[in-house]
Every structure is written in C-alpha cells, then in structure tokens.
Amino acid sequence: MASLFWGGLIILPLLFVYVNGEHFLYPKRHTGKAELAGYKGPDSLAVDGGGFYSGPLIADDDGSTADGNAGGTTEVKVENLGKADGDNTNGNANSVESTQVAAKNGTGNGNIVEAKTTFKGSWELFVENAGVSAMHLILLPKINQALMFDATVWKISKMKLPGPPCRRVEGTNEEDCYVHSILMDVETGKIRPLRLNYDTWCSSGALDINGRLVSTGGYNNGSDTVRILDLCDTCGWEEYPGALGNGRWYATQVTLGDGRFMVFGGRDFPTYEFVPPQGQKNTLKDVIDFNFLVETHDPVENNLYPFIYLSTDGNVFIFANNRSVLLNPNTQTIIHEFPVLPNGARNYPASGSACLLPIMLKPNEDRRVIPSEVLICGGASHDAYAKADLQRPKVFLPGNTDCARLDITKRNGKWKIINMPSARLLGDMVVLPTGDVLIVNGAKTGSAGWDDAREPNLNPVLYKFQTNGTGSKFTVLNPSNIPRMYHSSFALLPDAKILIAGSNTNPGYLDDALFPTEVRVEKFSPHYLDPNLAMFRQEIIVEKSNNQVKYGQKFTVQIRGNGEIDQQKLQVTVYSPPFVTHGISMNQRLIQLGIVEFNKNVAPNTNNIVLQAPMNGNIAPPGYYMLFVNYNGVPCRQSMWVQFLP
Description:
By secondary structure, this protein is mainly beta. It has a domain at 537-644: Immunoglobulins (Immunoglobulin-like), CATH 2.60.40. It is built from three helices and 51 strands. Strands 27, 41, 43, 46, 49, 50 and 51 form a seven-stranded mixed beta sheet that branches. Residues 1-96 and 98-112 have low confidence and may be disordered. It comes from Gossypium gossypioides.
C-alpha cells in the first residue's frame, strides 16, 4: 500500500526540491522512466522507507589490527599450502626476504614466492579541487585519464564551464554553466571539463571492445539515456536520450562474453534489457521482467545497484539484498539459486561492497570449468536506512563486520564467512594487481543516503587472496585523514597506486555540512610500494611486447629489471578497469595468465615472458586490460594496455 501511495505522488507534473539553499524545479515526468519513485517530501531526493531487522551472524575473527607504520620492515616466514597466515613480526628494516604462499602461477612447483613487508601504505594529496565530486569514476584505456562525474540535478559544482554554451535546464530553460564531468590526467592532474546535458545521477557504465565508455541511465531526463565517450584529446559525450526501454536509476550494467551489455534493475523497474547498439532505441518489447528483483525488494529497497558479474561459464551472477542467482543470458532463465547470505542487506541503501576475485589460469589452459569466486563485504541490517533516514532522532545502526566468499561455478557452493577487523558500509573493494583485495572508504554506522552515516572508516584493509580459500588474512593499513563516505570512488592506476575520490553525503555541494562535499583527490600507495621493495619492480618494454591479442593466442611480453629473474617469482595479471559508483565496481575483473615460457637474458637484464591469452570472452570479455608483471609480489613500474579480441 505504501508503494501505491508514494507512486501516486509522482504523477504531479511539477515537483519542488530544496537543495543547497535553492528551490529546484523538476520538469515533467518521463513516462515509464525512473524519477521520484518513493518521493516523500521536499528534502528527500533518493529515499526509501520501512524495513526489518536481521540479527548478527557469529563468525570467527580473522583480522590483524596492528598499528600501521610508514617504514619498510620485512617479514621472513615460509608457509605450507593451506596453512593460515600468522601474525606480523617485524624483521630487519633494511632486509627483504621472501614468503612462500599458495599456488598462484601454475608454472611448475605449485608455489609463488613474494616479498613480504610490514609497510602499511602511504597517502598523498594529488589534486586539491577536481571541480566535481566523483560520484562516478572510471580509468579510460590508453589515454590514462580518469573520468569523473556527478549529477546535473544540482546545477552547481566547484568549477565553471570554460565558456558557452551552458546547459539549458529541462522544464525551466535556465542556464547551468557549471562543470559536471571531467577528465583528469592521472600523472599530472590536468583537468579537461566535459559537457553533459542528460542527468547522470546514479547511472551505470562499462567499457566496450574499443575502450569507449558506454554509460546507461541516470535520473529524470537521463534515466533512459545511453551516452558514449570515445578516447581522443577532443572527444566529448555523445548522448542518446530515449535509447532504453525502461528508466535505469541505480541500475547495474554488465559486459557479456561477446561484448554486449545488459543493464539490470533501477528504482521502480524490476526488469532488465540489452543495451542497444549506438544510435538505436529499445522499446518496451525489449524489456524483460525479472521477478527476482521484486522478491528481493524490502520496504526500503535494499536491492538497488545489484552486484552482477559474468561467470567464466557464460552465465550471469546476480546478487540483490541477501539472495543470489545465476541467469542464462541467452535463454533469459534463472538456472540456479545460491543459499541466502545472512546478516542484513548488502545492496543499496544498506550498501555493502563486492568484487569478483581473481580468475586463475594455467599454462595451456584446457579445464572445462574455470573457478570463479565473489567476495561480498559489509553492509548493514535491513532496517538501517529506516532508522537513519526516516526516524527522528536519527539512529545509526552498526555496519556489518563480515565478508562472505562463494564459488559461483559450483552448484553446491556455500558462503564462507570471515570477519573484518572493523565494521564497514559504503566502502569500495579494489582488486590489486597481485590478486589481493584492498577494502577502502566508507563508514562504520548508518546506511547510504543523505546524512545517513557516521563514523568514517579511515583505515583501508588488505584482504590476502589465496586460491585454495584458506590462510587468508586481513591487515589494517595506514589511514587517510579525509572521510570518504557516501558517493566515494576509486581507480587502480597503471603504476599500481590507487586513486581515491568523491564523498558527498549532501544533496548538492555543501561546505558547512558535517561531512562536506569532497572534491579533493588522493593517491594511496599499498604495501607493495614499500620503497625497500623497489628493486623488484620490473619495466615492461612496450615496443617489444604484443598488445593486441586474440583469444587463446600465445604472446610475448618483454621485461627489464635488475639482476637475475627467477621464473617462480613471476606473476602476470590483466585487469579490466571498473565503472565505480555507490560501492559497486561494475565489470572489475583480474585474471592471472599462465606463463608458457620464460626466456632469460634476451638482452642484458632483459627477459621475455610467453603467455597465453584467455581462451574466450566468458573468461575475459573483449576489450582493453591493464597488464601487470609482478615480481616477488611487487607490481611493475607501469602496466601495459593490452586488447583481447575474438
């Protein structure tokens, strides 16, 4: 009944919303598109209502909460396969030793050796004012520029357009001369503003086979829009309003093995559709009902921005609220449902985060099924949003402390649950070049929504990934001094640092809020960038390496470094840059390639690595990947862009 009541409100032709000290006039409703579903009053733009409580799940702790240090001490410890990691012990500050961990490489002895350090990472302020708060962020291939954008609905940012024309606001025809989208050079910080006409608020996206961003949905006049950004010095947004059959606000876009895109859900639309080719339009006939999104919808939603990943078998894994299924995209049928994940809601607005764990390939790969696992961390109870946003005084419930891991290629797969060192919601999960996962950003209490979270979680946490699922460990890293709450984002950079941006808990650009709208951009150097490990950083000789490869093809990457290289200490991974927003990293994917041959000393201090490309697009959808060569667990100086093609 509540949904009918609120749904009736949005037939009003005009809505006034008070934001940032101004009255915003909203234009006519776009029939069949996401707009203000669930609208409850002039101070709420993206709110929900209701909910129920799920009690805590008891699990064993697996957290290391040792104080961080800026030094570079190392640890010497040899582990057997399957043995759990122990506590950190400091070694000689000037020594670099090795640790033997679970098989990652498959190059012969079943082990890979990596240097281990107690360095807890370091932070640097990269850009003082990006102009926009990075609600959405993605690293674009080849040009090495970070695309950041927020929403046009605010009609304001921290940067003016360099000149006319200004955007004409739909319905009022007033001028909006502020920047809402930028490209930032990740080395120099140079910013190029981009013009937007159709609202990108809470949109989705993915890179196509040629590295272009194809973005879908958003708010109001942008909810049914497809927009494309190509890779050139003068390229701007190409916008195609009306291209989608349903409005897609808080929806998730996934790339299939043949390069097509699907987009799922969004407020008020428990459906999905295939994204049409450029310039074409879907109709309602192209929209497919998806009852799973009806079933997982709490009174306060808790199933927006579902976690969606392409499995290595070509099926699509979909997680919403606390349930997950496999969907066959060809027959459009659910072929399997996994066990319920207990302990609250994981999707927006109780906002946990998730990632696909590394896909591990062997040399001359011939397995019928390549294992593929997901990791889901944090979130909050089902009624966290109702308590924080709808109740007065606000109540900020504690976030979840657990992570859960599941092999999505096994029909009898069950969740393996482990505790983080601290509670976290609104966080982000970065799959690092080594295969480990960095959990960063977020809060410890509350939920997603305007001013609905407290207690910033300033410390990143490192999750150690091992292929057999045992011996994993959390390590608390050094904190930032900038809270990154609701609407934070990240990008893994070619030099293996992490770009950190965004955070806006306010409906507009506010400087005097408890958590001001954040336009500063940081870089975080993880543990493997300990200066004492710099000797292990290899250099990829791009001009002597293959950077356009067909599936299954063998190809060569040439590296140069200091001294003799031990093949058993080498690891080569490829990484697909994700579209990051609201704690979800769409299409983030890291694949470890099998090393077929290692040819030493083809020139002084120079070696050739012969690799095999992934066998098909279900393992690695076509397009651009960042190729990293890791030696002793330390990434190369600069990754190389490689394109996988059918």
